[in-house]
Amino acid sequence: MKALPHQPATAPPLFGYQKYWAECYGTAPFLPMSRAEMDELGWDSCDIIIVSGDAYVDHPSFGMAVIGRLLEAQGFRVGLICQPDWKSEAPFKALGKPNLFYGVTGGNMDSMINRYTADKRMRSDDAYTAGGQGGARPDRCVIVYSQRCKQAFPDVPVVIGGIEASLRRIAQYDYWSDEVRRSVLVDATADVLLYGNAERAIVEVAHAFAQGKDSQGLDDIRGATLIRQAVPEGWTEIDSSRIDWPNKIDSLPNPYNYGNQQTSCESKGASPAQPDTRFSASMQEGLHAEPVRIIPMPLATRELAGADQNKICVRLPSFEKVSKDAVLYAHASRVLHQESNPHNARALVQKHGHREVWVTRPPIPLSTEELDAVFELPYQRVPHPAYGEAKIPAYEMIKTSVNIMRGCFGGCTFCSITEHEGRVIQSRSEASVLREVEQIRDKVPGFTGAISDLGGPTANMYQLNCNDDVVQANCRRLSCVHPTICKNLETDHAPTTRLYRKARALPGIKRILIASGLRYDLAVLDEEYVKELVTHHVGGYLKIAPEHSEDATLAKMMKPGMGSYYAFKKLFDKYSKQAGKKQYLIPYFIAAHPGCTDEEMLALALWLKQNDFRVDQVQTFYPSPMALATAMYHSGRNPLKKLRYKRGEKVFAAKSIEQRRLQKAFLRYHDEKNWGYLRESLIRMNRRDLIGDGDKQLVPDAHRSPGRSRRPKQKARGGQWSK
Q1: How buried is residue 366: exposed, middle or buried, by Cβ count under 10 Å (0-12/13-18/19+)?
Q2: DSSP readout, 75-142?
Q3: Tag placement on the chain: N or C end, fewer CB within 10 Å?
Q4: In 3D, which of 68, 6, 1 has the Cα closest to residue 32?
Q5: How far is the C-alpha of 500 from the C-alpha of 618, rounded, in Å?
Q6: For 589-604, b where at least 16 C-beta lie within 10 A, e where not — what string?
């Protein structure tokens, strides 16, 4: 049997670096947010200053606390500037000049999603601000904060990170302006962008700067994005159009032309069997001191056999091209997602004008021991005292919850978790989780004995991973569970079941609830887990996310069919009855997802009525940067398949306010406010038969009095009907 080319990648231990000299100052009670606090600690300056769009909560669920405490553990003095007034650079000088760099993050949420609804209406609240008030951060706050840092101290490097920067590392579609924007690294004028969960990268960058290096010496740090004038010497470059080209290449403009970007060149593409010599020459002329090998994919098997596998990069179409050609944008998105496995992914490069945006390979996931150490840093687990009695809603929601894992191999096309945290599951040890439960019991003010969640991105992926390290190192699947569950995926939930049992047996713990969303297609493979969950860990309601009922739309979402839902519901009802409990499933659905037509949304509404669901917790599709569903929304094509200009699969996307409003109204067919609008829409769709009082009809006739109840049944709490 032929050996697979890639072996599992490794990384130096996260806590194996020699500590910076400032470790002698010890651990700060809270990372300082003022000069007065710095004086109390005996600091004359900060080595690193983190600027965040969130209020400071010293808790492992808040990114600025994790990165700050991690850098502190490496020996650096770290200060925080949280939610500064961005109208001038003065607040960014509050802690003085940092010795090494500024770290800038938008916070736990993307600032645009934080500030605007899916209908682009400004929100009045902000869960990550003291008092919950909106307006404490600007639009695109990573860009604004970074520019202010540069104005405050122009010679100080700026490192940007967090989910807002992570999802904008290359040219990306921006829903709010309806255009493709440049990499945020270019607009922010920052020196380095770190993507994903950046513990490894931020530690490596900090020690590199401490040793006197600058951003030009960071080419090999994983999980980084940098600005370069050219591809580094010694690298072999693959033209991404040879990996996955929107056919037919010979009749189309060459997206890699580096001549006049203002005009469209004539198509003179090289034969697929030969390198594009014109492209190679233009890259070599004035850009590279030494030629970089550029290899079309048909030659890659032979040409790359002897190349250094750690020095191969993939060239994406330029910003100028993807901003004008939506199919090329979908192609670039598809290639980026194919290059996401940290064990086999290659570096990416994308031209922006005369500069190259250089994206290094994804970071190596943390080991269990490293993840434990990160979560057990000396957090106070409460907001900074500067906020007084003001409540921070996000903290109130998670203060008694425990994050047990990271990552998600589901690959749902509308979700940003995979793009940010990766597909490889990183799990904490059982002992570490139990110690955190005890810390909550002993330290959280007003603790009543109930843990609100043991979870993470999903409730039940704890310790689930590929059962063969070498197979995983060579895999390029976008999902381990779609279209079917991979035979190499470990699906045994016994470690999770055991963790639940041990946690609820701890002295002083009365209840362990599970609030994270459940991946029910995995849960049904382990009936013992479902029994444990339903019997002991459901507080009357359990969140699950079918998202839709129709196969065509579910395929665009990369979600399982409804067969898995029915199988799980059967087990849920069985074990709820055995436990003598009345418990309900709370399903989540999405309106206006790309690929969902009005007819499919109507079919979902009829399914909801047939199953006696009146859902209140609904959402309209929100095109977040870099998601595959966003590429569908923008391009009208399906990047889950090979792209073609003329014969490729077209994808409908509800974009207008009217289209999106109608699809959301179908989800809330039971709301009297929607009846008139739905009647008009059903008539327009030639479905007048669905208007009336029958069991198979959706909305009542116009003569129905608004206050009259449609059903004699009692409405279940949580906004759903239950049989």
Answers
A1: buried
A2: T--EEEEES--TTSSGGGGTT---SSEEEEE--SS-HHHHHB-TTSPBPSB-TTSGGGBS-SS-TTHH
A3: N
A4: 68
A5: 29
A6: bbbbbbbbebebbbbb
| Cβ-contact 156, 148 below 8 angstroms | no
Tell me the C-alpha distance between 640 and 656, whole Å.
24
- The structure tokens 């902000």 sit at 126
DSSP string, 351-381: EETTEEEEEPPPPPPPPHHHHHHHHTS----
Main-chain dihedrals φ then ψ at residue 133, nearest 5 degrees: -80, 140
**Strand locations in 213-265, DSSP E?**
224-228, 236-239
Give the separation between CA 270 and CA 261, rounded to whole angstroms.
20
Residue 156 to residue 154: CA distance in whole angstroms? 6
182 contacts 172 by C-beta, under 8 angstroms: no
Structure tokens that stand for 319 in this block = 């910003």
CA distances to 142, 152, 254, 330 from 86, in Å: 11, 12, 42, 35
Structural tokens at position 416 = 């940003």
Q: Which residue carries 């077209």 as its tokens? A: 650
Q: Where are the domains of the chain?
A: 21-228, 236-353, 587-723
CATH topology for 21-228? Rossmann fold (3.40.50)
Report how many helices (DSSP H) and strands (DSSP E) the chain contains, helices first: 25, 22
Query: How many C-beta neighbours within 10 Å does residue 21 have?
Result: 11
Q: Which residues pair with 650 in a beta bridge?
A: 637
3-state percent breakdown (helix, strand, coil) of the chain, nearest 5: 35, 15, 50
Low-confidence ranges of the chain (pLDDT < 70): 1-4, 242-306, 704-723
pLDDT tens column, 392-407: 999 999 999 999 999 9
The pLDDT assigned to 722 comes to 34
Tokens of 126: 């902000």
Instruction: Reduce the DSSP state of residue 522 to 3 states and report it.
Output: helix
3-state secondary structure of 300: helix
DSSP 57: B
The owner of tokens 């005292």 is: 385
Can you tell me the distance from the alpha carbon of 602 to that of 689, in angstroms, rounded to the nearest whole number?
13
377, burial (CB in 10 Å: exposed 0-12, middle 13-18, buried 19+): middle
Supply the pLDDT for residue 306: 65
Asked if residues 591 and 664 have their Cβ atoms less than 8 Å apart, the reply is yes
**Exposed/middle/buried for 39, CB within 10 Å: 0-12, 13-18, 19+?**
exposed
Neighbour-count burial of 448, counting CB atoms closer than 10 A to its CB (0-12 exposed, 13-18 middle, 19+ buried):
exposed
pLDDT tens digits, 551-572? 999 999 999 999 999 999 999 9
